[in-house]
């Protein structure tokens, strides 16, 4: 089996179990050593979270079908989990630009350029491309509209609860026969269950949207496309958009910005005829 570019010899089950035990011990020792130091606590937390995510990805790997996601086009913005990486390799959750010319819907992988926010102390390197507030302007207006609509749906459903409680009290009235009361109580209980489920779902979506809003606001000062961090990733790493209902759906950088990205990629990675 090939994984990570290495072909392993055929191992016995006992040898594999021994390798597993050694790996777990080695990992645990590393994390314990990090946890014992205040300056390494965050690193220990990031590694632990990534291992949990990675296990989830492995469990999902055989079930994953890229066709269940939307099709992605060059210039689209996606939010991806790059995991825990080495050295200066970007890791964690980042917005990114799709740069495939023609990524097939059935393809398991996609090529992206990660992005980062421009902060006061951020240094823009020669191999970066500053795109200003274009990303923020594109995403923020759509995101705010989505948040406004979801809050309105939540408030509309929430306003039904007093009427529901009033009907539940009336259902015990002597004006109804025992059979009628039983039917009415059952119907109201089913309605209440569905209402509370929808309220819970909307409330969870509001929490996610508000969290995303805080992340988007970090891009208000500007965004940087990290050209030297170009990479091909599994589509399993894409958080959003996966459906047409997701906030980032159909958000793309402008043609002038993509032209700048093309020129910069040519400059950095493509040999000229004179080289």
Automatic annotation (TrEMBL):
Family to which this protein belongs: Belongs to the PemK/MazF family.
Gene3D superfamilies: 2.30.30.110
Coiled-coil blocks: 192-219
GO molecular function, one term: DNA binding
Protein name, UniProt field: Type II toxin-antitoxin system PemK/MazF family toxin
Keywords from the UniProt entry: Coiled coil, Toxin-antitoxin system
Pfam family, one: PemK_toxin
